[in-house]
Design a protein that fits this description.
The chain is α/β, with parallel strands linked by helices. The protein has four domains: 4-100 and 173-214 and 224-379 and 415-466, Glycosidases (TIM Barrel, Alpha-Beta Barrel); 108-158, Oligo-1,6-glucosidase, Domain 2 (Oligo-1,6-glucosidase, domain 2, Alpha-Beta Complex), CATH 3.90.400.10; 380-412; 483-550, Golgi alpha-mannosidase II (Immunoglobulin-like, Sandwich). Helix content is 28%, strand content 18%. The protein has 17 helices and 22 strands. The protein has helices at residues 29-34, 36-42, 77-89, 108-115, 173-189, 223-226, 232-242, 263-266, 300-317, 332-336, 345-356, 386-397, 402-412, 415-418, 449-453, 459-471, 476-481, and strands at residues 10-13, 46-49, 53-54, 66-70, 93-99, 127-129, 139-140, 148-152, 155-158, 193-197, 220-221, 250-254, 275-277, 319-322, 361-365, 483-487, 494-501, 504-511, 517-518, 525-528, 537-538, 543-550. The strands form six sheets. It has an eight-stranded parallel barrel with strand order 1-2-5-10-12-13-14-15. α11 (345-356) packs parallel to α16 and α12 (386-397) runs antiparallel to α13 (402-412). The protein is globular and about 75 Å long.
Length: 551
C-alpha cells in the first residue's frame, strides 16, 4: 500500500550552519523560517532538522541535556511551533532528529546517577567495575580512546561516542518507558516524524569481554560489541508498538553496518522503521571500522556494484532513504569526483541524477543543491568536528606525520558539510552579519544561492527539474513507486538503471567519467544536463533520462 511519506523529497538542515537571524554568528530557527520560500521554490516537501534540543554542544547537539527543551542558541519552543505552522501552510513538514542511544553527561538523569549511586537513574546508564586496576574492557570508542570513563577508583561508565555522551541502558525497562513518553510527546506536538540517530547501538554485548587489539593503542573498535547486536530486534519491536505505530508519522533509521540479511529488523512489514539509510555504498572509500586513514581504492564499476546491490537488496524488503551527503559525510563531489579540476556543473548534476532517481525517498543536504565541494583547513586547530580531532590523534598513533594526518582529515572531516550555507557573495555569505561560528567554505563568492537562483543552467535549477519530475510530472509514479532494474552495461564508466511502473519504463544514464563515452539512444529525452545529445555519444559527466516504454 502506498504511503504519504514515500512521495516526500526531504531537505536536511544543519541548523547551526543554515541561517543566522539574530546576528550571533549561529544559525537558528527564525533563520529557517526566513527561508521557507526558498524551500518552496526548490520544491522539497519535508525538512529534517539536526538536533535543536538543549545541549552543551560537545558533539553539535547530538549530546542532549533536555529532550523537552530547545537549545537557546537556536531559539524557543514558540519558534519551533511557528516553523511547524508556517511550514504546514506551504506544504512542508518538519522531521526531528531522535537521539536515544545516549544523552549528554549534563542531562539531569546522568547528574543524578553520578551524585547518588543508589538512585534509580544509576540504572539509566551503563556502569561497570574495572578489572585488575584497569577499564572493564579494551574497547575503543567511535571518537577514539576507551569507551570507559572512570568515575570512582574502580567504577566506570560506558560511552560508545564521546565521554560527554554516556550511553543509555536500554536493558532497563523503566528507562525505555521514559524514552517512549518523550517520543510520543513530540509526535503529539505536530512534527511529521524522526530521523533516528545511532539506533543500532542501543544493544550492547552483555558479556563485556576484551577483544583482540587492532591498533597501536592496545584497544579494539567497539563496533563488533556495541552495534547491531543480537536481540536488538526485541527493543525495536517494543519501541515501534509504544510510539511510531500509534501515529501516522515518518521514520528513517541511521543504520551503519547492517547486513542485508538483517534488513527485516529495520524496515518492511515487520521492521521498526518506515525506511533506513544504507551506508554500505556511502563509505566505499574507507575500511569497515570507519577509520579515515584506512583508505580503499575504488573504480566506478565497484561503486556501481555497491549502489545496485543496495537497491536490489533493500527493495526486496522495504524502503530506503537515498542520499549522497549528510552532516557526517564529506561533500559528494570530492568523494566521487576525485580530480578537483573536474568539479563543476556537469559532474555535480551527473551524480545528483544518479542518486536522486533511485528507488527510495531522496534526501538533499543543505548546499548539495548548489554543487558545494569540500573546504580546506590548514591546521587541525581549525576543525570544530570532534571526530576530526579523534581521527587525527589515531593517525598520529598509527605513525602518520602531522601533514599526512591533516590531509586525510581534510578529505573526510564532517566540517566539510557543516560550513555555513552560502546565500550570496557578501562578506559573510548572507549567512550572518557577523563572523560565523565556523569558517565559510572559501568557494562562497562563486558558489552561492544568489548566483544560481535565477540561472536556468545552474546546479540549483537542475535540482528543481529533478524534484519537479519526481513530484509533479507524468513520470512521478514511475520515479516514486517504480521498481528498480539495474543495467549491467559493459561500459564500466556508465551507471545505467531503469524504473518501471504499470507499463511505463524510464531509463537513467550517467557517464561517470571525464571522457566521452558511446551510448546509443534514439528516444526523446526527459532530462539532460547538457544542451545537446547526438544520440550516439555522451559528453564528459553527461546524464540523460528517457522514456523507453509507455504502454
Amino acid at each position: 500500500m502506498e504511503k504519504w511519506w514515500q512521495k516526500e523529497v526531504v531537505y536536511q538542515i544543519y541548523p547551526k550552519s543554515f541561517k543566522d537571524s539574530n546576528g550571533d554568528g549561529i544559525g537558528d530557527l527564525q533563520g529557517i523560517i526566513e527561508k521557507l520560500d526558498y524551500f518552496s521554490d526548490l520544491g522539497v516537501t519535508s525538512l529534517w532538522l539536526c538536533p535543536i534540543y538543549a545541549s552543551p554542544m560537545d558533539d553539535n547537539g547530538y549530546d542532549i541535556s533536555d529532550y523537552y527543551a530547545i537549545n537557546p542558541m537556536f531559539g524557543t519552543m514558540e519558534d519551533l511551533d511557528e516553523l511547524i505552522k508556517k511550514g504546514k501552510a506551504r506544504g512542508i513538514k518538519i522531521i526531528m532528529d531522535l537521539v536515544v542511544n545516549h544523552t549528554s553527561d549534563e542531562h539531569p538523569w546522568f547528574k543524578a546517577a553520578i551524585a547518588d549511586p543508589t538512585s534509580k537513574y544509576r540504572n539509566y546508564y551503563i556502569f561497570k567495575h574495572g578489572k585488575d586496576g584497569r577499564a572493564p574492557t579494551n574497547w575503543r570508542s567511535i571518537f577514539g580512546g576507551s569507551v570507559w570513563q572512570k568515575v570512582t577508583e574502580d567504577e566506570y561508565y560506558f560511552h560508545a561516542f564521546s565521554k560527554k555522551q554516556p550511553c543509555l541502558n536500554w536493558e532497563n525497562p523503566v528507562l525505555r518507558q521514559e524514552i517512549y513518553q518523550m517520543i510520543n510527546w513530540w509526535l503529539d506536538k505536530g512534527i511529521a516524524g524522526f530521523r533516528v540517530d545511532a539506533i543500532n547501538f542501543i544493544k550492547k554485548d552483555q558479556r563485556y569481554q576484551d577483544g583482540e587489539p587492532d591498533g597501536e593503542d592496545g584497544l579494539v573498535s567497539c563496533i563488533p560489541f556495541a552495534r547491531n547486536q543480537p536481540g536488538i530486534e526485541v527493543f525495536f519491536k517494543e519501541l515501534k508498538e509504544n510510539t511510531f505505530a500509534k501515529h501516522d508519522c515518518m521514520t528513517i533509521s541511521e543504520a551503519y553496518g547492517v547486513s542485508y540479511d538483517k534488513l527485516g529488523i529495520y524496515i518492511g512489514e515487520n521492521g521498526c522503521f518506515d525506511s533506513m539509510f544504507d551506508f554500505n555504498y556511502s563509505n566505499f572509500d574507507i575500511g569497515d571500522n570507519e577509520e579515515w586513514f584506512i583508505r580503499k581504492d575504488w573504480t566506478a564499476k565497484q561503486f556501481r556494484d555497491l549502489l545496485f546491490t543496495s537497491q536490489v537488496e533493500v527493495n526486496k524488503v522495504g524502503w530506503v532513504g537515498t542520499f549522497l551527503e549528510n552532516h557526517d559525510q564529506p561533500r559528494s563531489l570530492d568523494k566521487l569526483i576525485v580530480n578537483k579540476a573536474d568539479h563543476g556543473y556537469y559532474s555535480a548534476t551527473m551524480i545528483a541524477s544518479m542518486y536522486f532517481f533511485l528507488r527510495g525517498v531522496p534526501y538533499i543536504y543543505q548546499g548539495e543543491e548548489l554543487g558545494m565541494a569540500n573546504c580546506v583547513r590548514r591546521s587541525i586547530d581549525d576543525f570544530d568536528d570532534i571526530s576530526s580531532h579523534g581521527q587525527y590523534q589515531r593517525m598520529l598513533e598509527e605513525g602518520f606525520s602531522e601533514s599526512e594526518a591533516l590531509a586525510l582529515v581534510n578529505k573526510r572531516s564532517r566540517d566539510n558539510s557543516r560550513t555555513p550555507m552560502p546565500f550570496d557573495d557578501s562578506q559573510y555569505a548572507g549567512f550572518s552579519d557577523v563572523e560565523p561560528w565556523l569558517a565559510l567554505n572559501e568557494s562562497y563568492p562563486v558558489i552561492n544561492v544568489k548566483a544560481q537562483f535565477n540561472d536556468l543552467d545552474s546546479v540549483y535549477s537542475f535540482y528543481k527539474k529533478m524534484i519537479y519530475l519526481r513530484q509533479q510530472s507524468v513520470y512521478s509514479n514511475t520515479l516514486t513507486f517504480g521498481s528498480f532494474i539495474p543495467d549491467e552495461c559493459e561500459n564500466d564508466n556508465l551507471i545505467v538503471y531503469q524504473r518501471s511502473y504499470q507499463g511505463q519504463l524510464i531509463v537513467n544514464v550517467c557517464n561517470f567519467s571525464n571522457q566521452e563515452q558511446p551510448f546509443i539512444c534514439a528516444k526523446e529525452l526527459i532530462l539532460n544536463n547538457y544542451k545537446e545529445y547526438d544520440g550516439k555519444v555522451l559528453k564528459p559527466y553527461q546524464t540523460i533520462m528517457y522514456l523507453e516504454e509507455n504502454k
